[in-house]
Write a structure and sequence with these properties.
The structure holds 2 protein chains of 2 kinds. Chain A has one domain: Sufe protein. Chain: A, CATH 3.90.1010.10. Helices cover 39% and strands 18% of the residues of chain A. Chain A has 6 helices and 3 strands; from the N terminus they run H-E-E-E-H-H-H-H-H. Chain A has a 3-stranded antiparallel sheet with strand order 1-2-3. In chain A, a hairpin with a 2-residue loop joins strand 2 and strand 3. Chain A is globular, with a radius of gyration of 15 Å. In chain B, strand 5, helix 6 and strand 6 form a beta-alpha-beta unit. Helix content of chain B is 41%, strand content 14%. Chain B contains 13 helices and 13 strands. The chains are: A alpha+beta, B alpha/beta. At the A-B interface, helix 1, strand 2, strand 3 and helix 2 of A face helix 10 of B.
Chain lengths: 152, 390
């Protein structure tokens, strides 16, 4: 479908890191099926480095492609490095998404934060990258950040 | 790769017989119907014939049919001109929550001008409640517009009963019959509507041509000004080849209506049964009783519609979805919302619309693809029947 570039289509068709890590060190969920997209991510952390990440996503093609890309980007990174990854970085790696779909990349950024927050909570860690993180922020917000287009 | 088109409610291919009739009017029979010499008269005659063919499809008299550029123009014309025309009597309009945007957005434009619009609810089956309509009518009501067949989930409305209520109170009644044309029987004499919108490209005619039925005696003012075409009701040089195509398509639709309906509903019912047998957690949106014969609107629980659409497209299958993610506005389908379908299920709803060129093999192939695609996406999804929606 012409709407997505080849890279996004390839990641959507053949996503990497799909699943759930059974003995995960940190688990985070963001979004909900009511919003139209939801991502659940689980992490393995060793010495402050993310050694594995797996995801499950309910969502459109760009949500699934972003999820796959984001998990790839954080594996091998320290927690602080992973927290610095923004939706813009994910977008850049994907080679861009169509305008109305940009919010889908926010999903993975937020799910990663939620999973690292979960890890930090369990290990009494204070992370610089979580300074402004609010685990109870409205999950609807990522949709409101972008202006609505035409309906037809 | 196999190509399967299951989006006949979006548009239909032009039938070969229709195209054959159209072609001479692009080249040798190119005259302007307003010209007095022979090729002008020839074009005028072609329009007269087409008008009769379209009129016959809906049981109208020929002079009650006006050609327009599309169904949306007909809808805009009916609502805008009727509202302005009857303004002295009142400012209240009644329509439904499930109309096409050609109606809804026109209503919103009229609201900005000071008109008040009541949007009727529908039942989970997708039909209006006649009692609610009756209660909504006031002394200030000047126009009621209710679509005959819904484009998303195919519900057929009780137009005859609704139009009778309008007539009793001296209120103009319009119906958007764009999806109804050629798919359900239409007899304007029986229905007693004042205005009715039609479109050619939903009945195997060309895009860019529509029609409006205006009951004799209803002096609806023109919407387009500038010429005496279309009995002084719609200015603009007539699109002769497209009008000819619309006429031919209407004739074929009329002659094949019962066979068409029977064939489509048989295929549609087979398709739904196969999908539900092979794939768990699939709901049908809307009721089956009063429904467009080719419409199947299905909610695939726990997955999202756009990703379904993409994977079906990858397999050569064309369908539509009610998912917000497929619309640029990111708003989930207003029609399925009005039915009371939960938002998470709307996101995973697909519309399959079956038409004259659909075969049982097409549907078997689609079911096979769906089985694999749904399984794949459900494996990717964090929600499931076991885990629930959260």
């Amino acid at each position: 479908m012409a709407m997505y570039n080849d890279k996004v289509m390839d990641l959507f068709m053949n996503p990497h890191n799909v699943g759930e890590i059974e003995d995960a060190d940190g688990v985070g969920t963001y979004g909900s099926p009511v919003c139209g997209d939801m991502m659940k991510i689980s992490l393995k952390v060793n010495d402050g480095v993310i050694t594995d990440a797996k995801f499950k996503t309910f969502g459109c093609g760009s949500a699934i492609a972003s999820s796959s890309m984001a998990t790839e980007m954080i594996i091998g990174k320290t927690l602080e490095e992973a927290l610095k990854i923004t939706n813009k970085d994910v977008l850049e790696e994907l080679g861009g998404l169509p305008g109305p779909k940009i919010h889908c990349s926010v999903l993975s950024e937020q799910a990663i934060k939620a999973a690292i927050y979960d890890y930090a909570q369990k290990h009494n860690l204070t992370l610089e990258g979580l300074k402004d993180y609010d685990p109870n922020a409205s999950e609807e917000d990522h949709h409101d950040a972008f202006e609505d287009g035409e309906d037809e | 790769m196999r190509k399967v088109y299951l989006d006949y409610s979006a548009t239909t291919p032009v039938k070969q017989e229709v195209l054959n009739e159209m072609i001479p009017y692009f080249t040798e029979k190119f005259g302007n119907p307003s010209s007095l010499y022979e090729i002008g008269a020839e074009a005028k005659e072609a329009i007269t014939k087409a008008r009769e063919q379209v009129a016959q499809l809906i049981g109208a008299k020929s002079q009650e049919v006006i050609f327009t550029s599309c169904g949306s123009e007909s809808d805009n014309w009916a609502l805008t001109s009727a509202a302005h025309w009857k303004k002295a009597k009142g400012n209240h309009i009644i329509t439904t929550k499930i109309e096409h945007h050609a109606i809804l957005h026109t209503c919103q434009a009229l609201e900005k001008e000071g008109f008040e619009v009541t949007y009727l609810n529908v039942t989970p089956e997708g039909r209006i409640d006649l009692k609610e309509l009756k209660d909504a009518i006031t002394d200030r009501t000047i126009l009621i517009s209710i679509m005959m067949v819904n484009n998303e989930m195919g519900a057929i409305q009780p137009i005859k009963e609704a139009a009778a209520m309008a007539k009793e109170r001296g209120i103009l009644f319009h119906t958007d019959a764009v999806q109804a044309g050629g798919n359900v029987p239409i007899d304007v004499e029986e229905l007693q509507v004042d205005m009715l919108s039609l479109s050619a490209h939903k009945i195997y005619g060309p895009k860019g041509i529509g029609a409006m039925y205006i009951r004799k005696g209803v002096a609806l003012p023109p919407f387009l000004h500038g010429g005496a075409q279309e009995m002084k009701r719609r200015a603009g040089t007539e699109n002769v080849p497209y009008i000819v195509g619309f006429g031919k398509a209407a004739e074929i639709a009329r002659l094949q209506l019962s066979e068409h309906m029977e064939r489509l509903s048989r295929l549609r019912d087979y398709f739904i049964a196969q999908v539900q047998e092979r794939i768990p957690y699939v709901d049908v949106n809307g009721g089956m009783e009063h429904r467009h014969p080719g419409n199947a609107n299905l909610a695939f629980n726990f997955i999202e519609g756009e990703s379904l659409l993409l994977l079906l497209d990858y397999n050569g299958i064309s369908i539509s979805t009610g998912s917000a993610c497929s619309s640029k506005s990111l708003e989930p389908s207003h029609v399925l919302s009005a039915l009371g379908v939960p938002v998470e299920k709307i996101h995973g709803s697909l519309r399959f619309s079956i038409g004259d060129f659909t075969t049982k093999e097409d549907l078997d192939y689609t079911v096979e693809c769906l089985v694999k695609i749904v399984e794949k996406l459900r494996a990717l999804s964090p929600v499931s029947a076991e885990k629930g929606w959260n």
